[in-house]
Write a structure and sequence with these properties.
Helices cover about 40% and strands about 25% of the residues. The protein has about 400 residues and is an alpha+beta fold. It has 4 domains: about 5-130, N Utilization Substance Protein A, Chain:P, domain 4 (2-Layer Sandwich), CATH 3.30.1480; about 135-200, Nucleic acid-binding proteins (OB fold (Dihydrolipoamide Acetyltransferase, E2P), Beta Barrel); about 205-345, GMP Synthetase, Chain A, domain 3, CATH 3.30.300; about 350-410. Strands 7-6-5-8-9 form a 5-stranded antiparallel β-sheet. Strands 1, 2, 3 and 4 form a 4-stranded mixed β-sheet that branches. Helix 3 crosses helix 5 and helix 10 runs antiparallel to helix 12 (about 325-335). The radius of gyration is 36 Å and the shape is elongated. The relative contact order is 0.06. The model is unreliable at about 1-5 (pLDDT under 50). Monomer. Binds directly to the core enzyme of the DNA-dependent RNA polymerase and to nascent RNA. Belongs to the NusA family. Participates in both transcription termination and antitermination. Keywords: Cytoplasm, Elongation factor, Protein biosynthesis, RNA-binding, Transcription, Transcription antitermination, Transcription regulation, Transcription termination.
Length: about 400
């Protein structure tokens, strides 16, 4: 039969797309049957024989011989005269098998058939990619920067699969050049239309957890368990670790001598400050550890309302709160408790919200974001430091200080 361009490309499809022989034959038959159905109204009486390795294809139409003038369906019936043009000894009632040449389908049908075939191959390919990466969700993955866009970086892996690293999944200090390798976790895989959208993340807490598994042998082997991870990407992270073997110091094993083991992880995350703490079911001790590097004098926990009040010496308060309030915020996320800090020896204090009639809500909120939610916690700070940390105007900060001082002078 005519070995048209469509047939010549069978082996090419098989080699390029790595499709197994059985799958390729099934796709080819589906495409040809669809074309025959459009051309003849039905494909039920057609036999399709395909050999994709050699590029051979045969299509046979089976019809019943009827008397001349009695053909009602020319797809399933053939007149005696036409049947005897194929073989002279056919009789009424017999079955006739006649080969259908591709050229007989018409040029337009052949072009549509080829396009349909390419589409089906791509659809099969995309389905396989989707399944492959769906199983990789939450795993570490490395790909190369292919194209840098305003809202995302487009990566390609070794198989040419496209992976998207959105801007909001990048660490603020991330800067990549074309051709550079990027590591992250496969966060999600979705089918958009027929094309898989593979999203990578470097800001997910899971990325940090997987880096621990990758870089620290005891975590990889299961001797140390990462119980919880919380992050402010590029700024600070807290990781709670535990070991069921009393001979292993989980924190020491993760950090290493002089931070040697965790140094590579910190560098990967743009010098993100990582606190590694021992996990414990003792809630008082867990919250105390979560507030490190601050030293807690005492702590009072309300388990019903999931709140904790930590009392510290005045010089420890700023450590507990941390720059920009990061430390206390992450400690709360790590433990699941809302933590308030109080200065030891200071009995009288007033919540900033009590001044809402004199201080605007957005100003109170600005102080709260850096962990200052009481009058004395604000008054103990330097004005210049408050201006820098809150981004408020100096005049606004001075006005707040004046209002707060009047409260205590009364």
């Amino acid at each position: 039969m005519e070995n048209l361009a469509l047939i010549d490309s069978f082996s090419e499809f098989k080699d390029d797309k790595l499709i197994d022989r059985v799958t390729l034959m099934a796709i080819l038959e589906e495409v040809f049957r669809s074309t025959l159905k459009r051309r003849f109204g039905s494909d039920d009486n057609f036999d399709i024989i395909i050999n994709p390795d050699k590029g051979d294809l045969e299509i046979w139409r089976n019809r019943v011989v009827v008397a001349d003038g009695e053909v009602e369906d020319d797809n399933e019936e053939i007149s005696l005269t036409d049947a005897r043009k194929i073989e002279e000894d056919f009789e009424v009632g017999e079955d006739v098998s006649e080969e259908v040449k591709l050229i007989d389908l018409g040029r337009r049908s052949i072009l549509a058939l080829r396009q349909n075939l390419i589409s089906k191959i791509h659809e099969h390919d995309n389905t396989n990619i989707y399944k492959q990466f769906k199983e990789l969700e939450g795993d570490l993955y490395t790909a190369e920067v292919h194209h840098i866009r305003h809202r995302a970086i487009i990566l390609l892996d070794d198989d040419g699969n496209e992976i998207i690293l959105p801007k909001d999944r990048q660490i603020p200090s991330d800067f990549f050049r074309k051709g550079e390798n990027v590591r992250g976790v496969i966060e999600s895989v979705e089918l958009k239309g027929n094309k898989p959208a593979i999203i990578m993340s470097r800001t997910s807490p899971l990325f940090l957890e997987k880096l621990f598994e990758s870089e620290i042998p005891e975590v990889f082997d299961g001797l140390i368990t990462v119980k919880n991870v919380v992050r402010i990407p590029g700024e600070k992270a807290k990781v709670a670790v535990d070991s069921y073997d009393d001979r292993i110091d989980p924190v020491g094993a993760c950090v290493g001598m002089k931070g040697s083991r965790i140094h590579g992880i910190v560098r990967e995350l743009g010098n993100e400050n990582i606190d590694v703490i021992n996990y414990t079911t003792n809630l008082n001790l867990y919250i105390t550890r979560a507030l490190s590097p601050a030293r807690i004098t005492s702590i009072k926990i309300d388990e019903e309302n999931k709140t904790a009040q930590a009392v510290l010496k005045p010089e420890e308060v700023s450590k507990a709160i941390g720059r920009g309030g990061h430390n206390i915020r992450l400690a709360g996320q790590l433990t699941g408790y809302e933590i308030d800090v109080y200065r030891e020896g200071v009995e009288e204090d007033v919540e900033l919200t009590e001044f809402s009639d004199e201080i605007e809500a957005w100003v109170i909120e600005a102080f709260g974001k850096i962990g200052l939610d009481t009058a004395r916690s604000v008054l103990e700070q330097e004005v210049s430091d408050l201006v820098r940390r809150t981004d408020l105007e100096e005049e606004t900060v001075l006005d707040v200080m004046r209002i707060l001082k009047e409260e205590f002078e009364e």
